[in-house]
Fold this protein.
Amino acid sequence: MREILQSAWEPFNWHSGWIIWNLFLAFIPLVLSFFLYRRRSMRRSLLWWVAFLVFFAFLPNAPYLLTDIIHLIRATRSGYSAFIITLIFIPLHLFAIITGFQAYVISVMNQSVYLKRLGAEKFILGSELVTHGLCAIGVYLGRFRRFNSWDFVVDPGNIFTSTIDDLTSKRPLVVIFITFIVLTVLYWIVKQINLGLILRFREMKASGHWFE
């Protein structure tokens, strides 16, 4: 058994060591979204605005996990046994991708709830589309330009010039647009699932029948 575990850990560490780190980055905007949008006070202090900027700087890390499917593809082509691929690689990678995107959906949903509380419900759709667009750019910068969220602070000039170059070049613009469409469609689907689960939970709570 020990040899099996060791043989399983080696390929995981080589091909899937990114999971913990990338999930950590994806959960930063999720946690911040509750601080920014779900607290009782509507007061926006200096700390709130700083957290808001950090939120948007890190938010692309959540949908970025969708692109990490390439690690799963590489792992399946590395000659490992079907046992390791089926029971280790596929479940772990899918868990990371689904969890990361769920963090993204909840974060944006919290933002929409905040707008509703402000009485700006008519701006919800627009804010969601703008968020998807900004995150599509962020995902591209992360995957192809290899920028990190903290580069907005340590290297803002390079990010700005790279973004302008990408938005005025055909190939990057096509990739960003496709990413935007994927994020928009997947967000809408997962959002509807979440809303359905929330509604079901409230109905069960109100009726007191949890296991019907």
Remarks:
- The radius of gyration is 20 Å.
- Residues 170-207 form the longest helix (38 residues).
- The chain has ten helices and no strands.
- Confidence is low (pLDDT under 50) at residues 3-8.
